[in-house]
Design goal:
Length: 329
């Protein structure tokens, strides 16, 4: 006869637990199939408010910019790689995310720049239209497309890959100095070889629209509460924006500062993508100083998604402080 005691009961329970725990690892024991990996990121869009305006940032992927040729032509590669390593970034490329802005003023829907159009050479870019759909933005409802400058990651998305208009009902607005430079046949002919492809791309994008494009001078209010201002250097007519609604304001620095770990920390470093590199440095420093002094909320094209945050003076450079992610609007 077996006598159950408290000691034997506890021993039995422990043995049963161990057996259950070890059972899946027993020889020839059946195993459950693992769940397949997703293999892709969630839709890339983020919303925040500036006063009564609703801002939607739509991601168009990323450009992993090779270090050959150097994106910092006046700085040795070892110095650049140290900065990247110090920021826990890969030391073989500089990441440039593409963050596009949609502004809903309550009466107007405005797109600031329109992305790569799926025509940018890295396959890591071209998610803009899918993410617009995920964000619930209908391109046919956009009232105006406001272009900051004529680089392909800002203008190619005017057309689909099969040359259909993405924003069929929108007014297309471009800076007058950009149009005067990139659409000039004489300048295209005499341009350095490195710039010729961009001249050709500008003709491809804007040629069919030439009679319909509205050209604006930097300084103009391009939409209610959205005022442009000159930020030359990156390109001859590179334009930035302030967005104001009530007492709230946003400073859109566009491409005045590229990857912040590199160019905010080291504002005196030349950026190879700037048409006038010295002017680009002066504009960058002026923009960073303005943001830090005013404690402005900023939005940047090539900062880590969603590219919104603040700039803080830090020694001889500046530090980017991203906004805290919030589900509240």
């Amino acid at each position: 006869m077996t006598v159950l005691t408290r000691r034997s009961m506890l021993t039995g329970a422990a043995t049963a637990t161990a057996a259950t725990t070890l059972a899946p690892f027993a020889l020839n024991a059946p195993t459950s199939a693992s769940a397949p990996v997703a293999g892709k990121q969630a839709p890339g869009f983020y919303r925040y408010k500036v006063g009564e305006y609703e801002i939607t940032i739509v991601n168009d992927g990323v450009w992993l910019r090779s270090l050959d040729p150097l994106p910092t032509p006046n700085i040795p590669i070892a110095d650049l790689q140290k900065v990247l390593a110090d920021s826990f970034l890969p030391t073989t490329a500089v990441p440039y995310p593409f963050n596009l802005t949609i502004i809903n003023t309550g009466s107007k829907l405005i797109a600031i720049d329109v992305g790569t159009g799926g025509r940018f050479s890295p396959t890591t870019a071209g998610t803009y239209l899918d993410n617009l759909t995920a964000a619930g933005v209908d391109p046919s409802k956009v009232d105006a497309v406001v272009i900051s400058h004529f680089h392909p990651d800002h203008i190619n998305g005017i057309w689909t890959k099969d040359d259909k208009a993405v924003f069929p009902n929108a007014e297309i607005m471009v800076p007058e100095p950009e149009w005067a430079f990139w659409m000039d046949d004489a300048k295209a002919t005499s341009a350095p070889e490195g710039l010729k492809p961009n001249f050709a791309n500008c003709k491809r994008v804007f040629g069919p629209l030439a009679s319909k494009v509205t050209r604006y001078q930097p300084g103009k209010e391009v939409a209610p509460g959205i005022t442009s201002f000159a930020a030359y250097g990156h390109t001859p007519g590179h334009t930035a924006y302030t967005v104001t609604s009530g007492s709230a304001a946003l400073l859109m620095i566009v491409d005045s500062v590229a990857n912040p770990a590199v160019f905010a920390r080291n504002p005196d470093w030349q950026h190879a993508s700037d048409v006038d590199r010295n002017m680009g440095i002066e504009t960058r420093k002026r923009m960073l100083d303005r943001a830090a002094t005013d404690k402005s909320l900023i939005q940047a094209m090539h900062f880590p998604f969603p590219g919104a945050g603040h700039i803080v003076k830090d020694g001889n450079g500046y530090r980017f402080v991203p906004v805290s992610w919030t589900h509240l609007l």
